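DM from R.C. (forwarded with permission)

"hey, sorry to bug you on a friday — could you get me a structure for this? deadline for the figure draft is monday and I only need the backbone to look sensible"
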Amino acid sequence: MTNEDLVGEIEALGAKLAAAKASIAKRIIGQEEVVDLTLSAMLSGGHALLIGLPGLGKTRLVDTLSTVMGLDGGRIQFTPDLMPADILGSEVLEEAKDGTRAFRFLPGPIFCQLLLADEINRASPRTQSALLQAMQEHAVTIAGHEHKMPEPFHVLATQNPLEQEGTYPLPEAQLDRFLLQIDVDYPTRDAERDILMVTTGTADTQAQAEFSTTDLIAAQTLLRRMPVGDALVEAILDLVRACRPDDDTAPDFLHEAVAWGPGPRAAQALMLLVRARALLDGRLVPNHADLVALARPVLIHRMALSYGARARGENLGAIIDQVVATLPGHEAAA
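My reply, with the result:
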C-alpha cells in the first residue's frame, strides 16, 4: 500500500467517525470529551472504565455506542451477590432420549461484542476478577475448555466513586486491563438545559448505525498502521518511566508520593490512543498535544499514592500533571 492509499483510507475513516459522533450527539449531550475517549478506546481495540455518580448518562452512552458502532450489546448489572458463573456461564448435565448424559456449555451474558459492566465495583473482587481472562485474551476457560469471545470484544464498565457505600475497589490486575479511565462529570448549565428538552418530551431521540462489525475491525487495523514519529515514541517512554517511583528518571517529588507506577501496558495504550485521538480530530499523524491530553486517563488508574501522600491529601491527577510538565516539548504542546 502506498502512502497515498493510506492517507485516503485514514481520511475516509475520519469522515465516517465524524458521522458516528454526530449520531451519538443526538442522544448524548454535553459530554464531548467522554464520547471521544470512549470512541478512542474502541478504535484502539481496548476497554474503558467510566467513573461518575449515578444519573450522568454512562449507561445511555454505552447503549448508544452499541447502536452506532453496529455491535451486539450485552449488559450485566453488578451486585454484591453476583457470582462468576452468572457472568461467564456454566456447564450443565443433560440427558439425551437414549439415556446418555453429556455436559453442555451455557454461555453467560459476557458473550457479546460490547459488554456494559454496570456498577462493576458493587460486586466482590472474586466476581470482578471473572472478567480478567476475557478482557486480556478474548476467551474464557470453563471446566477446562476454552471458549472464544465474539470479535470485536469490548468491555465498557461503569463505576461509582469508591467513597460511596457498598462499593469494592477493583483489583490492580483488572484495572491495568482497562485501556483508560474516563471521568464523567456533571454537565454544564446549558448542556443540562438541552438534556431536559430532549429527554422529557413525548419521544426519545434515536441514534442510527454508522459502523458495522467489519467496519470497526477494519478501522482498528488501519489505526495500527498510522505512523507515530520517533520523538513522540520517546516522549511516551519518558512519561511512563518517569511515573515509576523506582526509576532513576522519575522526578524527586514522585519517589515519596507514589507507591507503584504504570507497567508496559500504559505505553502500549498511549501508542494506540494518540493515534485514535488524531483520527477523531481529523489529523493524519498524532502529536505531543495528544500525549498530554491522554496522560491522566491512561495513567491515573495504573498508579497508587503512597501512604504518606494519602495522609497529606495529595492528588494523583495533579502529580501526573507535574510529571507531564517536566517532559521536553510540553510547553509547545500546551
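R.C.: lifesaver. The first helix runs from residue 3 to 25.
me: no worries. The two ends are 35 Å apart (CA to CA).
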